[in-house]
Structures are given as structure tokens and as C-alpha cells.
Amino acid sequence: NTEAIGFEALTGRGVLSCAMAARGAYRCIECNGEAAELYRDYQRGVLRISICKSCHKPVDKYIEYDPVIILINAILCKAQAYRHILFNTKINIHGKLCIFCLLCEAYLRWLQLQDSSQNTDPDDLIRYAKEWDFYRMFGIASLEQTSFLVGIFTALWWMRPEMLETKSDFILLLKALLLSSYGKLLLIPAVIWEHDYTPLCLAFIKVFVLISNSQAIRVTLNLNRMLPWLAIFLGLILENGVVCLFQKMGWAV
After folding, report:
1. Where does the sequence pass through the membrane (predicted)?
2. Alpha helix (H) residue ranges in the chain
3. pLDDT at 178
4. Alpha carbon of 221 to those of 17, 154, 156, 217: distances in Å?
5. Whole-angstrom distance, CA of residue 103 vs CA of residue 98
């Protein structure tokens, strides 16, 4: 009825209902077991959260939580929050988030490059060169990110080929890695509030992003803690190899 539809629209559960119809199966945020539904709607705003048949706990308690609480739990790298976001919600912002994070990283590098330059000539040619430097930094950041992801996928495929057998497995893991890189958005505040401790802040941001990536791999593929970190380590090796290549070419990165 109209009242139930309005309630679902207000709480955001209408989106979950559509996703449920489209995707069919969900995951229990506690044990990672498959579930046919997250909740049952008895109309008039009466909902009952489904119980997992494996662990006998609520399939997804986060459907009743405020988005801010879910975000805080994700920042704390809780596996339950990651499973809720990756498996039980319909979020398709990973592409836009990736582009925005790359822009933030390119802007940071471009700003550091301009700080190291002593040329203050306002000539149009100089301004054009500075603009080209930003595009170059964006391209370098994109290549480094791509090499990092390629290293992770290669390592995981080599260690556990059965985990990445289908195209959907690759897409889901790629989505998880891009979404878990949201910590790069903190690069802009770190630059705006410039301080003597900015390099330390940037190091902490890098570590936080890597921890989030590790948790995303672990949750998506249901692995132990060691294999995700090994895959990330190999990804970093490939990424640093690309950085060394650019440095040998004489490009500032």
C-alpha cells in the first residue's frame, strides 16, 4: 500500500528490495553464508530481519542502522560493515570514486611539483605547461593504480585460481578494491591544512588505504588475513616498479 511504499522510500529499504529482486541472493554479514532475503515485509511498516540458517544470527543488522553508523563501522574496517556494503546494498559509485581519488592524488603531486618550481612567470606558455603537468600527474597516478591492481589480481590468481574463475568474481573484487580506496579522499584536507606533519599524515593515509584494501579482499574472497596482505605486497612491488621506470625516464612523480 501507499504507506508501506512511503516507509520504504524514507528508510532506503525500497532500494534494497529492488536489489533483492535483481540479484536474488545476499550474504550473512556474520558468517558470510548465502541468504535468500534480508528481511520480510509485513506491510504497514512492519519488518522482520531474516535469520541466517548457518549461524542463527540476523542476516544483516545494518539495514536498520543509520548510514553514518555504517560509515563509522566501515572506517573501523569491520568485516560485517564491508559485507553489508559489498553484498547487501546496490552501490555503483566505485568508478566515480576511483576517478575522484585519482584527481586528489594528481592534485597533491601537482601542488608539490609547483612548490618545487621557482618560476613565477605569468606567461601563457608557462600556465599551459603547468596545466599539462597536472594531466601528466593524473596519467602517472592512473598507471600506478592500475599496476597496483594488476599485481593484486595476478597474485591472487596465482595463489588461489579457483577464487577468480568467472568474470563476476573479477568485477566484484575490483569494485571492492576501488570502494575501499576511499581513504585517498583525505589527501585534499591534508594539503589544505598544510602543517609540518603533513608527510606523516600522508603516510598514515597510505597505511589506512592499504588496510582497507586488505579487508576488502578478505571479505570478498573469504580469505584469512595473510593472503590479502601478500597480494597487496606484490601489488606494491609492481607499483614501485612503475615509479622507478618513470624516474629513470626523468619524470617527476
Report:
1. 137-158, 170-193, 227-246
2. 2-11, 13-23, 67-75, 79-87, 94-116, 124-159, 167-179, 187-192, 198-221, 226-248
3. 94
4. 25, 14, 10, 6
5. 9
Mark 12-33 as b/e (b = at least 16 C-beta within 10 Å): ebeebeebbeeeeebbbbbbbe
Is 184 in contact with 104 (CB distance < 8 Å)? yes
Q: E strand or H helix at 27, and its extent?
A: strand 26-27
Identity of residue 253: V
**Residues in a beta bridge with 202:** none
Identify the segments of the chain with pLDDT beneath 70. 1-24, 45, 115-129, 194-197, 250-253
Q: Amino acid letter at 195? A: H
Max CA-CA distance within the chain? 70
- For residue 51, which phi and psi values (nearest 5 degrees)? -105, 135
